[in-house]
Amino acid sequence: MHIVMTEGIPYAWLEQLQEVHAHVFDGDYLPLEKLEKKEGLLCLLAVENDTLIGFKLGYPHPDDVFYSWLGGVHETKRGLGIASELMKQQHAHIKTLGFQKVRTYGRNAFKAMLIANLKHGFDIVSTFVDEKDRHKIILEKPL
C-alpha cells in the first residue's frame, strides 16, 4: 500500500474515490460539484495494486485552521492502520504548509473515527446540531 497525495481534485482517482466514499457513507456518492467548491483541497489516497482502498480529504478553513473534512477506509481493509497512516501524513504535510491546528467534525454514529481522532491527539472542543438535525462533535488538534 502507498499514499498518493494531490492538491486539488484527484481526477484520475475520482470514480474509485466516489465508490469508496459510497461504501463508507451508506451509499452516498461524493459529487464532483462538492469537491469543486473546496478551495485548497488536499487529497490523500491509500492505494493498493492500483485500487483505492481509503482516503482523507481536507481544505483550509477561513480561520486559518485546516479542516480535515472526509475520510474512510473500505471495510475489507479496516484494522490495518490505514486511517492512522492517512491522518499522520495529512498532519505532517499541512504542518509544512504553515498550519498550526487541524479541526474535524465527528458523529457518535462513527465511533471508530472518534476514537481514532482521540488517539491521535485531538480534543473535543464543542458540539452542534447541523442542518440535517444531526449532532456533531468538533475536535481540534495543535500541530
Written description of the protein model:
The protein is an alpha+beta fold and 143 residues long. The chain has one domain: Gcn5-related N-acetyltransferase (GNAT) (Aminopeptidase, 3-Layer(aba) Sandwich), CATH 3.40.630.30. Helix content is 28%, strand content 36%. It contains four helices and seven strands, in the order E-H-H-E-E-E-H-E-H-E-E. It has helices at residues 14-24, 32-36, 82-96, 111-119; strands at residues 2-7, 42-48, 51-60, 66-73, 101-106, 123-129, 135-142. A seven-stranded mixed beta sheet has the order 1-2-3-4-5-7-6, sandwiched between helices. A hairpin with a 5-residue loop joins strand 6 and strand 7.
Low-confidence stretches: none
On the 0-100 scale, what is the average pLDDT? 94
- The residue fraction in helices comes out at 25-40%
Category from helices, strands and their pairing: alpha+beta
Main sheet: strands, sense, barrel = 7 strands, mixed
Report the strand count: 7
Tally of distinct domains: 1
Q: Name the beta content range.
A: 35-45%
